[in-house]
Amino acid sequence: MIELKNISKGFENVQVINDVSSVMKPGQCNLIIGSSGSGKTVLMKCMVGLFLPDAGEVLYDGHDFIKMNDEEKKEIRTQIGMLFQGSALFDSLTVEQNVMFPLEMFTKWNYKKKLERVNEVLERVELKGTNKKFPSEVSGGMKKRVGIARAVVLNPKYLFCDEPNSGLDPLTSMIIDKLIMEITKEFKITTIVNTHDMNSVMEMGDSILYMHQGEKEWEGNNKEIIFSKNDKLNDFIFASEFLKDAKDMRMLEETGKIPNERDMSELTHKDADPLIDPD
Amino acid sequence: MKKFISDFGRYILMIKGMFSMPENFKMYWKEFMHQCSDIGIGSLGIVAIISVFMGAVSAVQTAYQLVSPLIPKSTIAQIVRDTVILEFAPTLVSIVLAGVVGSKIASELGNMRVSEQIDALEIMGINTKAYLIGPKILASMVVIPMLVVIAAVLGIYGGRLAGTAAGILSASTYDKGLLEGFLPYNAVFCMVKAYTFAFIISSISSFFGYYVTGGSLEIGRSSTKAVVVSCILILFADYLLSALLL
Q1: Which site among B30, B112, B122, B124 would you substitute to test the A interface, given the most A Cβ atoms closer than 10 Å to its Cβ?
Q2: Tens place of pLDDT for every residue, chain A, 279 residues?
Q3: Best mutation target, A103, A105, A192, to test chain B (most B CBs within 10 A)
Q4: Cβ within 8 Å of residue B145, ≥6 positions away
Q5: Which residue of B has its CA nearest to A83?
Q6: What are the strands, taking DSSP E only, across chain A?
Q7: Strand pairing partners for A17?
């Protein structure tokens, strides 16, 4: 379990995160959502130790990561896998070498065993047969999957994903989301995902932390978020035209009538296509 | 001034941060050998060309200035030898290497920083200063002095080639001149310079690359800065070492 206690972080005169506390629950997809510039990435980087918070504590199973010495931090980091926004694959290495890198650095396995493990995780992320390709030769979605394979190859306890859907089409985004969810359940990993993609929020949000201008604004899950009364959160989640339907659905619920599946589908089609005459 | 002190402090901390137990010695060795090949083999061609021409020009210009019939022709070889060993091979080659190797190191590390590859290594629990910068500095310290020795040999040979081809002096006179009044200390001084310059080139370039912030524009800027600062420091160290050791 990762616990954040009163984390604050600023750069020069700009306060990016202000007094954020939360708990990242084990074995779940914990989402940090918010608009661009809300401090999600900085918060995540504070959690993994890439940034040192100005104040607060980051507790890994009760131990403050910030106060740990270098050796203790190294120990924790061997339990962390991270998928970066731009995948951060090593350009000069092939897909196989990228995924094998953590194994080469931290295990004493022989080559055969390492290759078996690499093939196992590549198969898991549905990238069988791409071993000898270089990152420049694969698509954005495949890069993300290689990033996931590299992140989980050492069986980490914690998986951090910084905007896993950025730059991907909606279908590939869904595949990546599904993969992250499956891996989280399969390996019982504590997953923390930074995103502003509402599909991901609704799909993966076992636990959601909404950030606005560096502050924690709301906390809940994907079942509660749609019914939230928080105006800032509502502005964020209902910014999409399609999600306005969901807002209408909530209003109907408030007036005592919850539409069934058929009603909702009608509502969606009517609002989505202006050429359809409501009468 | 404040920025200079802050940058100097960061530079010292970067060097200090390199000294830690490798996570996996085999991987560090692999990276070291990779850098040796990159820096050494990658720069051999340009070093060879520059050295031969540097010696050749040195021989021709020395002959042009030695007009007195009282000075024996073999003096040309002595002057070429000492100029090449004392100055041209270590300094000129290092300045060229600051451009070739320094910009490569700075842009490689800068690109890794901007594309979050350095962060990815940090997250894995790898000391990136030790893993990325350490092998580069060590490889430079091993390979650049070797390149300087090759440059000195080729420079002296270039002088012989030009001298005989232009009919300035015979090959035997040149060879005789090379053996006259040779001071082994000059070779030692040349190597001291080579090691100092190798450290300057690799560490300064690593510093500018490792701490890049921003995007591709900043990578270009940091590479240029790395080359400029390395060149200035090489010239400054050249003067300092000459004043102290000669």
Answers
A1: B124
A2: 899 999 999 998 889 999 999 999 988 999 999 888 889 999 999 999 999 999 999 999 989 998 898 888 888 888 999 999 888 999 999 999 999 999 999 999 999 999 999 999 999 888 888 999 999 999 988 999 999 999 999 999 999 999 888 888 888 888 888 889 998 988 889 999 998 888 888 888 889 999 999 999 999 988 888 888 888 888 887 776 666 666 666 666 665 554 444 444 444 444 444 444 443
A3: A105
A4: B191, B194, B195, B198
A5: B120
A6: 2-11, 14-24, 29-33, 55-60, 63-64, 80-83, 158-162, 190-195, 207-212, 215-220
A7: A9
B126–A105 CB contact, under 8 Å: yes
Question: Residue A60: its chain B contacts at CB < 8 A?
Answer: none
Contact across the interface for B126 and A73, Cβ inside 8 Å: no
* C-alpha to C-alpha distance for A27 and B33, rounded to whole angstroms: 42
Q: Is residue B15 helix, strand or coil?
A: helix
What is the per-residue pLDDT for A272? 40
B-chain CB neighbours of A102 within 8 Å are 124
The contact set of A with B (CB < 8 A) is 45, 48-50, 70, 73-78, 80-82, 84-86, 88-91, 101-102, 104-106, 160
Q: Hey, are the CB atoms on A105 and B119 less than 8 Å from each other?
A: no
- Rounded CA-CA distance B210/B107 in Å is 9
φ, ψ (nearest 5 deg) of residue A215: -120, 150
